[in-house]
Amino acid sequence: MFEEKVKEFEPIFYPRSIAVVGASTKLKVGSVWVWALISGGFPGPIYPVGSGGGKIGDLEIFPRLRDIPGEIDYVIVAIPRRSVLELLDDCAAKNVKAVQFFTAGFSETGTSHGYKLEKQMLEKARRAGIRIIGPNCIGTYCPEHGIPSLLGRIGKSGTVGFLSQSGGIATKLIEVGIARHINYSKGVSFGNGIDLDASDFLQYLAADTKTRAIGAYLEGTKDGTRLFNTMKGVTRAKPLVVWKGGRTEVGARAALSHTGSLASSAAVWSAMLKQAGAIEVSGLEELTDTLLILQRLDRWPGMNAAVIGGLADGGGGISVSAGDAFAESGVNLPPLSAETEEGLSKLLGEVGSILRNPVDVSQAQPRGVATLFRAIELVAADAAIDIVLIQEDVEILLPIYSPTGLEEINRFVIELAGRQDKPVMVILPPGSAEQERLQLEQRFLAASIPVFASPERAAKAISNAGRYFCRDGA
Amino acid sequence: MIKSKTMLTETESKEFLKKAGIPVVETRLARSKREAIAISREMGFPVVLKVNSPDVVHKSDSGGVRLGLANATQVGKAYAEMLSSIRQAYPGARIHGLSVQPMAPPGVEVIIGMSKDAQFGPVLMFGLGGVLVEVLKDVSFRIVPVTERDAGDMIREIKGYPILEGYRGRDPVSVSALEELIVKVSRFVDDNPQIEELDLNPVFAYSDKAVAVDARIILEA
Q1: How far away is chain A from the Cα of B18, in angstroms, using its nearest Cα?
Q2: Is the domain of A153 the same as that of A118?
Q3: B117 in contact with chain A, both atoms CB, cutoff 8 A
Q4: Could you tell me the pTM of the whole model?
Q5: What residues of chain B lie within 8 A of the CB of A256, using their CB?
Q6: What is the rounded average pLDDT of the residues B2-7?
Q7: A332 touches chain B (CB under 8 A)
Q8: Which residues, 6+ apart, have CB-to-CB distance to B43 below 8 Å?
Q9: Residue A105: which CATH number?
Q10: Has residue B211 been placed in a domain?
Q11: What is the reported pLDDT for A473?
Q12: Is A264 domain-assigned?
């Protein structure tokens, strides 16, 4: 589906050369962009363009775009808006394929001048066969091709594609991605989207073979019907997670029917997303939690989870509350099989409810880590279980097991995750040992084990991912 | 931008719906007391009288609806009383007369409606009728065109769904009849883009069918 988009978007995400207009020897946004591309390791020629002349690093600053000797695929623009039309003429003369405008002050200001200028830009671009990204955006991000964020930050290349109407949210997605090992195939912030908008980028990401799951931050759309139809197509190919901003906006309505007075914009967006098969989330946390799970999944294992808690003392209440969190999110915590229960009972010398699910393994602690590992293995091997979650409360485990003991446990968890098909995930709630907890989180994430700060967040993310895979006819 | 709108009367709305194959309770316009009594006799008692006016938005709040009228005397008396109370509540309203319809046997009340969204166009709504829609706003939406599967999702999505499944020994209502009705409404509004808003409120859902008891169509003027 949408295969024609792959070739069409090649110069946007994989340009052979990039010019940055608005560069100078002084610290300006254009210069920042040039430095970002250099530090990101962009593999093709980078051409700074600016009237002041001089050099950025080893790169000569060309006075005008037309002065550049080589071919230019992609142009990043950070100049005042009064010069954008003239610049588009230069781009046409140089046979540029696509232009990204950081420049702002257009329709987002609500002025007629802003709208008019956008219309003129679009007319010029269409005549010259140039695609526009923006204006009022920070544009593309493609780690595989050495295109970093504006801050010069670049994470590992991965399987998640994102699109965002907001540059700030796009930057945050990249940063959270770097911190939580959510690795992007590519992403884009498209601002006002006067030419390429959400539907275009969704179609491209659906066709892009590097992208396995898509995340989106959207505030509105100029063509709702096209967006709806596009999303319906996209979700047939890949999971799509959408965070809709501006849900509490109240539109002015003059309705004469019950239906008219009840059909708020938020209710209609939610219905549209559901109908299109997308997963709606309510914020950055839930969006990134869900993408963290989706990025590694080829197929959905199933909705039956086991939660193992109480690795040291004090597992009772924690297990009970984890059980509530999963039940409320609609994730099934089925009873373990009779054989598993029997095995656990032999190992831990306990019977009864603590060996159900969530499983409280605190009785393993006085018997040593080998018993703990055997208990975890028994639960993980249970045929009724599709997903294994282990909760570690670092500040409780540290004094009981000592750093060496905890290290041994974590090596075991990583090794267990590596040797079995079922996904293993870890719940690491914040407490008083934040430094150790954050280090541990990084280790698990680096080993491809999703980590969540609470059972509630883990449950919600699993439930979100499951809703996509378990819908009828999927 | 606020478009100017025209509200069709109940009888006009139902006529329009009936032609599209949407089941409605048969309703006829009476322009006089005598006509009201004659139509009632033809339909069989008990009947319902409702004021028929393009200007009366809240007809039941202003004495414009009378249910369960059991004989000719009651119909005649109600006719005169309703006209006078409606003229008090809505001075200057155009009143075409009163509509007469047979009293529908009790069913589960639901609402099916359409309004236009600025970004996504026509949107259908489904919910339980009466106080549940007004106070609890227990409704679901889908963008037109609505498929049978979408319609099924809309019905099951509302919190009050167990009421449709039958509770305390009541018969479950036919979900497939409701699905069919929703899909027909979707097709109807898709074929008639001049419709700005639509309420089928209430629809009575039964174990074997679903029928619109009252209807309101608002056209782009």
Answers
A1: 20
A2: no
A3: yes
A4: 0.93
A5: 5, 7, 57, 197, 216, 218
A6: 74
A7: no
A8: B26, B28, B100, B101, B102
A9: 3.40.50.720
A10: yes
A11: 46
A12: yes
